Amino acid sequence: MIKVGIIGGTGYTGVELLRLLAVHPQVELRAITSRAEAGKPVTDLFPSLRGHVDLAFTAPDAAGLEQCDVVFSATPNGVAMQQARELLAAGVRLIDLAADFRLKDPTVWETWYGVPHACPELLEEAVYGLPEVNRQRISKARLVANPGCYPTSVQLGFLPLVEAGVVDSDHLIADAKSGASGAGRKAEVHLLLGEAADTMKAYAVAGHRHWPEIRQGLEAATGKKVGLTFVPHLVPMIRGIHATLYARLTRDVDLQGLYESRYHDEPFVDVMPAGTHPETRSVRGANTCRLAVHRPQGADTVVVLSVIDNLTKGAAGQAIQNMNIMFGINEATGLSQPGLMP
Amino acid sequence: MIKVGIIGGTGYTGVELLRLLAVHPQVELRAITSRAEAGKPVTDLFPSLRGHVDLAFTAPDAAGLEQCDVVFSATPNGVAMQQARELLAAGVRLIDLAADFRLKDPTVWETWYGVPHACPELLEEAVYGLPEVNRQRISKARLVANPGCYPTSVQLGFLPLVEAGVVDSDHLIADAKSGASGAGRKAEVHLLLGEAADTMKAYAVAGHRHWPEIRQGLEAATGKKVGLTFVPHLVPMIRGIHATLYARLTRDVDLQGLYESRYHDEPFVDVMPAGTHPETRSVRGANTCRLAVHRPQGADTVVVLSVIDNLTKGAAGQAIQNMNIMFGINEATGLSQPGLMP
Amino acid sequence: MIKVGIIGGTGYTGVELLRLLAVHPQVELRAITSRAEAGKPVTDLFPSLRGHVDLAFTAPDAAGLEQCDVVFSATPNGVAMQQARELLAAGVRLIDLAADFRLKDPTVWETWYGVPHACPELLEEAVYGLPEVNRQRISKARLVANPGCYPTSVQLGFLPLVEAGVVDSDHLIADAKSGASGAGRKAEVHLLLGEAADTMKAYAVAGHRHWPEIRQGLEAATGKKVGLTFVPHLVPMIRGIHATLYARLTRDVDLQGLYESRYHDEPFVDVMPAGTHPETRSVRGANTCRLAVHRPQGADTVVVLSVIDNLTKGAAGQAIQNMNIMFGINEATGLSQPGLMP
Amino acid sequence: MIKVGIIGGTGYTGVELLRLLAVHPQVELRAITSRAEAGKPVTDLFPSLRGHVDLAFTAPDAAGLEQCDVVFSATPNGVAMQQARELLAAGVRLIDLAADFRLKDPTVWETWYGVPHACPELLEEAVYGLPEVNRQRISKARLVANPGCYPTSVQLGFLPLVEAGVVDSDHLIADAKSGASGAGRKAEVHLLLGEAADTMKAYAVAGHRHWPEIRQGLEAATGKKVGLTFVPHLVPMIRGIHATLYARLTRDVDLQGLYESRYHDEPFVDVMPAGTHPETRSVRGANTCRLAVHRPQGADTVVVLSVIDNLTKGAAGQAIQNMNIMFGINEATGLSQPGLMP
């Protein structure tokens, strides 16, 4: 059994980790921390876990995290980088669900996250936890930077095109739509049901923190600079990301074949038949990225539709997939539930 | 492995059976029928099951249902009663998720469902599949009438009170609210998102088919006539029933203790702490009925809050719970996922 | 033109006042205050008002409210009672949309709102602004206590029964369901779309502040004590209240006739035909209370269905209706839009 | 008073026409037809109109439409072209809310709508009813083709760019998101709340009927061929379109100034300040198109955000705007309500 701790368990990625780990057959959940809720049973906050999780939240210091085999950090950005050295020194592996170790360049981090990086010396070692790209390195990693939700859906959608070099990678467009849980379990007026239901809007068009993360990933895949326009939108649903991707083809290619061969052996990427349209609900609560590729009117613009559950493949599910890889067990363990439909 | 067939797999109870049975460790799914969709892969209709269900729909006659150990009938009302004799004669056990075998009196059936009953001789044998009442009889049943969604939530909420004889059972009130999936996967204008979102309404106040079913259950528990006012409402959510129950206390009683002791050993009924309010999402996709009991202002009116997922504990989950009981395996097998929250 | 000021214009009742007053033909909007947003154009917060409202928020002290003919106070509970004396002394009429002047007994106020009342001497003068009960007194009032949203829907539903004395008023039951805007435009986790969408729950079953307000109104109508069980629920919609009311008949009566005659001359109460079920969307954005009355199965329990828009007839619309009455203009002025459907 | 008739009043564009015309001060509503509902009061279908519309539906033949000054045709595609000649011959002006007269080339019509055009000789005369382009011609028109919902939002968003010739018009991209009412009030499974809530999807990526309509409009504006990728999406809201538009700049330009000057005098196009993001709810029930223009990271891709209410500016509101222009009255008459927010 893998001994697991969670830092910061009161947010959406925290409760999603709990939902999945509670029934993971090879995990023993040892501790879940929350400074604000220390001492309170987890099920007081999350009654859906009654009968599944007996733990109470503990203060971070008292949690005995150093006894764990692996710790998931589900805290806001900027917290994990304060704790990483100590945990690694204690022989604990760390999977950070926030952004702290995603960007390789600490100056880019500082530009987008507003504070200097607290342990830049770990950035090189940290492995970007997108298994479809870095599976081998993840299997040996001490420190995994779990990808952002938008970056997961957008990179998995673009990768076959940019790896094959068949599109103009100076002018990629990602029009991404997210449910409200993507913004976290934070008390903010614009996320109230009264504000965010039955309406939609774009946001952060001038620049979103996931933009440099996506570019870094695509540039690693192509080996050159990538131009990307990224427009996120908030749509009135709880979970789910729908990324609609646009690129201009620079040469003719069998798009369906390209996608099917790229993801043929991937357990959590599902290439849909040509001509279809994946729905976000088809992956609700599931760790799958579902893709379809189109070339409307036979013109030179390719359109990729990529859906994930932002909390599962976009966060906690992918983190557990990474854990499974790190501990050498079947990658799909604990992640094999179909999506909840309807 | 239990060999399982499903009749009528294109509705919401059908797809919910598939979702749960696909990962049930002791089930082999043999056939799923649909006259309209015969020949089409199940995943064409339900892409959420891609990678989980390889079957195609088959015509009812060609499905080889007589080779199954058990068949779930997930058809509209009035279909299972046409097929029950034949299946039972072939040694197949039958769990009907529709209403055909729920009412013991065929004249009551005809009054509420508008057609004469096709095999009244089986009504006596049929066991009403509410495990919290009939577990022993279910374990030996050939034919189980799986309860309706409203009746499950309302009966589980009222049973401790009426069994203990502590309320005026001539004037019970059940104000029940259901998500739209309770009405089925039918193309009807009033169920469109454009009609049913961001609004709510009561319906069928003059009389709903679940009214006689609830009364029958409560009368069996008390041994006398029961007076019930039942008002169902459609609320803008996909899954979930919230039943708010009102009864007048005829004597003083420790309500919390009464509920806790009644359901102490029940794996799928969760009595919440005094003073709490269960949310439907806490059981989203889960087979749990979650209850809380209140006595506002210390007056003589008791208020019970009862939530279920109409498709799980209110339909397919409970049907699988019944199957587990019928085949002598752990009652919770395949039903242990926490609710999907958020 | 009536010169109008609004205190506290950043909440939902504030913006609803603005939406309606912006096109009210006999109103000149002079000032809208907000300490937090002083100096900011109203349309920065509420772009839906672009082209309709040119004002900026002003600090309360600088707003020149004493120059207005009438001021709407759309602040949290406990603020208007601090300002009432001064405004009235300046000859300004005051319509308070919060609870400060609704309860006649200052000890009941203190029990439910947790602070002593700041100007109990005004409670007697304050007129409870339910035009269907107090139209004459409203027409002469300096100070109107605009009713709460639940109390409006519940009282309008029960009044014909209790005024006629045809039900057991010791055991009234009000099962009320509200959209999320009823909780206000406050940054609270449980009101997030991620928490409140696709789910529902009861809340405050032990006691809600609208319970004494409803009782007070019904007791005034009957002249005796009333027993009321009031259970509010949060449902996943933006606007709308659906109150489902239950009472036991003590004598036979033509219910449909009773309701139609009670509300025959009321411009904003619509009694639906017998056997129908009003939807909340039928009054979305409209100042109407729509009612239907049922007697299921001919038993002795009467069921009343009462829907309003909590922000319109349940708050800002009713406040403007009161203003129209106070200033002797047509009661429906500025309030004649049909509901937004779909 | 303008005497108005409506053909086909049971769909969403029909009821939206009724909502707006019921309070239009210069309209007398004479007849509303529906073959299926003939004889039934309009308010039986649409209780939101109780107290506002006294008409019953009449059979098309008996409606006396030839006595009207103007008829709105709110029928499915292909109906208005059967009736146009006769109405025009009777001296009635016709505003068609369907697609029958939008495409100038009858072969393009036949390609996309599957049937030959019934009166191609009227296509030249028909005026495309986008007032921001064709106001002068609309004022003299007998026959107006009211634009589609997507085409309204996309054209208003792109027009300043293509008219000024500052973008590569061979590679325009329109990523459009619509609420469910855009698909009409039709009983189709995929539009059920249980299917379309809490999820989203793209659809018709291979080709949507609004694609040739948008291209025709943009080509008229530029005088040359336009290349357009158009991807519509269904999002879980009732009303609203959010079009996110992408184009590559071919020369530097003051984008904000370009948009503001283009729409300076337009009563129903609102250019938001630079850096903002319009929400669909800001135009809920309003006849406004609200736009913002961005140039992320200073790169050469311009992003335009364009929101409308698909039933108002995208259908019935724009049709009434056209009527106002045709009859020489103030263009905003009856259309001056702010959006319903929240």
Automatic annotation (TrEMBL), chains A, B, C, D:
From the UniProt record, list the reaction(s) this protein catalyses: N-acetyl-L-glutamate 5-semialdehyde + phosphate + NADP(+) = N-acetyl-L-glutamyl 5-phosphate + NADPH + H(+)
Q: Which GO terms describe its biological process?
A: L-arginine biosynthetic process
Q: Which SUPFAM superfamilies match?
A: Glyceraldehyde-3-phosphate dehydrogenase-like, C-terminal domain, NAD(P)-binding Rossmann-fold domains
Residues in Semialdehyde dehydrogenase NAD-binding domain copies: 3-141
Principal location: cytoplasm
Task: Say if the entry is tagged with keyword Methyltransferase.
Answer: no
Q: What class of enzyme is it?
A: oxidoreductase
Active-site residues, record numbering mapped to chain: C149
Q: Which UniProt keywords apply?
A: Amino-acid biosynthesis, Arginine biosynthesis, Cytoplasm, NADP, Oxidoreductase
Q: Which SMART domains match?
A: Semialdhyde_dh (SM00859)
Instruction: Enumerate the InterPro entries for this protein.
Output: AGPR, AGPR_AS, AGPR_dimerisation_dom, AGPR_type-1, NAD(P)-bd_dom_sf, Semialdehyde_DH_NAD-bd
Q: In which pathway does it act?
A: Amino-acid biosynthesis; L-arginine biosynthesis; N(2)-acetyl-L-ornithine from L-glutamate: step 3/4
What would you give as a GO molecular function for this chain, any one? NADP+ binding
Enzyme Commission number, as recorded: 1.2.1.38
As for family, the record states: Belongs to the NAGSA dehydrogenase family. Type 1 subfamily.
Q: Which HAMAP family match?
A: ArgC_type1
Please report the name of this protein according to its UniProt entry: N-acetyl-gamma-glutamyl-phosphate reductase
Q: Gene symbol?
A: argC
